[in-house]
Amino acid sequence: MVSRVLVPIDDSKMSERALEYALEVYPDAEITVLHVVGKPSQMWGHATGLALADDLEDAAAEHAEPIFDRAREIVADAGGDAELETRIELGNPARAIIDRANDYETVVIGTHSGSVVDRVFVGNIAEKVVQGSPVPVVVVR
Amino acid sequence: MPEVLLIVGILVAIFVGFNIGGSTTGPAFGPAVGANVITKLMAAGLMSIFFFLGAITIGPKVVNTLGQELVRDSSIFTTRSNVAVLFFIGGALFIGNYAGVPASTSMTAVGAIAALGLATGELDWAVMGEIVVWWIVAPIIGFWVAGVVGRYFYPRINAWIAIEGNDGGRQMITIDYSGFVPRLRFGENATRREISGAFAVVGIGCLMAFSSGTSNIANAIAPIYGTGDVDMVPLILIGSAAVTVGCFTIARRTLDTLGNDITNLPLTAAIVVAVVASAIVISLSIIGIPASFVVVATMSIIGLGWGRATRTTTLSGVRAGEETRVSVGALTAEEEGEQSPEIGEEEPEDIPKASDLFDPSTTARVILMQNVVPAISTVGAYLTFRFIPIFGF
């Protein structure tokens, strides 16, 4: 019986599917959605913009909020009354996910994110998580 | 027949210029357009003008390097091989513009020309080596200068420049055509401070456009100049006109993709990066070195954020500078600009976390990926000249 599930999400369709899958397969589990802000971008403007913010936590939360709102919508659509835990991490997405994974029993992650730019500059996060995660990883396509 | 090929060559050069206009308008005017200070149209106009000014003043030095010095025998710039060189430069840049992957136009062009030299055995390795050394050194300089600014001076600079983007409504600066003489019109309720801030953002865009002109005009016209068939000035005019076309067309897209990432920066940061990167690029152009603007700018952005994120303790050397801070503080106190917290007195717990944003392996990946487009043009051109026997080498 899996009781603690980590679902890393971004703004891609694949991560929405991962969350839907997690809700369906682990209906009784406590699900935590994790969003990593400050991921690599074309000219590194995103991460530096955050680093220069007056209050890093506020700025990070502001970036993550639309993503978490979408996640809550998905939970509501699935008819779940599950309490959704949210978590924000900074920096290298794969490393942040792997570092957090130890507190959970399973990680459910989408295969890839949507845009070409992400693929070029961030790389495939799911692949790195599968390689580095200390707990089992479910990859959703 | 050679005349036809020359015309085709010039047409392909125009295609290159078009893509240069597209790829540089984003970084240069992204902040100004993103903050709703000027329209995209006005950005395109300013970009064209300042690009031309840079091209006609300092640009010829870089054209000479690329068109005559990089290869030992400039007779390899036949009208036929030029079409291919320019095709690879333009094609690779087009892919980059289209996919939203920023690329250094200079690296792309030097790569294609060097590939021609390499395939024909005429590459001057001394010149190539000098260029490559600067490609490594210039971004490192950008990183450190911006890093020092980020670490020690950023809050102060930020307190001077209190500009907020204005959301929605009319742009801060527009042109009023209703009168006999067109006049600049400023946003309603704009304070003097906001207007000077708006000018600063537009000004740095113009500075970047100028620096781009000094370095990038060579990328479109150097091979044709190498043939000796056309003079420098007409070529610069043609190249700049092509850039103008790019500014008014494809730049609309790059302002949204490439410009977008720079607009993630606070305007103060965009100004710092622009000044540092433009100064480096213009300096290199003066000594005839084609500079890798995108890489220099990116390393400056990383340096600025990293410098800011890694400040932890009060340094005695910084303490010594406190008197100046006091006078700056007195100046800014009368306006609503943010007070700068003293170094070492900011809350310690939110500081170390920010350094997580600057992971060496991911930053290295971003820089590496910026070399993909130049690599495409270099490898493509080399294989073509080496193995396709229509160029007579």
Q: Please, could you describe this protein's structure?
A:
The complex is a heterodimer of chains A (141) and B (393). Chain A has a single domain (26-140), classed as Rossmann fold. A 5-stranded parallel β-sheet of chain A has the order 3-2-1-4-5, sandwiched between helices. The longest helix of chain A is centred in the middle third of the chain and has 22 residues, at 56-77. Chain A is an alpha/beta fold and 141 residues long. Chain A contains 6 helices and 5 strands; from the N terminus they run E-H-E-H-H-E-H-E-H-H-E. In chain A, 46% of the residues lie in helices and 21% in strands. Chain A is globular, with a radius of gyration of 14 Å. In chain A, helix 4 runs parallel beside helix 6. The model of chain A has no long low-confidence stretch (mean pLDDT 88). Chain B has 393 residues and is an all-alpha fold. Chain B is 72% helix and 2% strand. Chain B contains 16 helices and 2 strands. In chain B, strands 1-2 form a two-stranded antiparallel sheet. In chain B, strand 1 and strand 2 (183-186) form a beta hairpin. The longest helix of chain B has 36 residues, at 125-160. Chain B is globular and about 65 Å long. Chain B: Belongs to the inorganic phosphate transporter (PiT) (TC 2.A.20) family.
Low-confidence stretches of chain B: 313-339, 346-352
- How are the strands ordered across the major sheet of chain A? 3-2-1-4-5
Structural class of chain B: mainly alpha
> Helical region count of chain A?
6
Q: Report the average pLDDT across residues of chain B.
A: 83
Quaternary structure annotation: heterodimer
Counting DSSP H or I runs of 4 or more residues, the number of helices of chain B is 16
Q: Indicate how many domains the architecture of chain B comprises.
A: 1
Helix content of chain B: over 70%
Please trace the helix and strand order of chain B, writing H or E for each element.
HHHHHHEEHHHHHHHHHH
Which strands sit side by side, in order, in the main sheet of chain B? 1-2
Which regions of chain A are unreliable across 5 or more consecutive residues at pLDDT < 50?
none
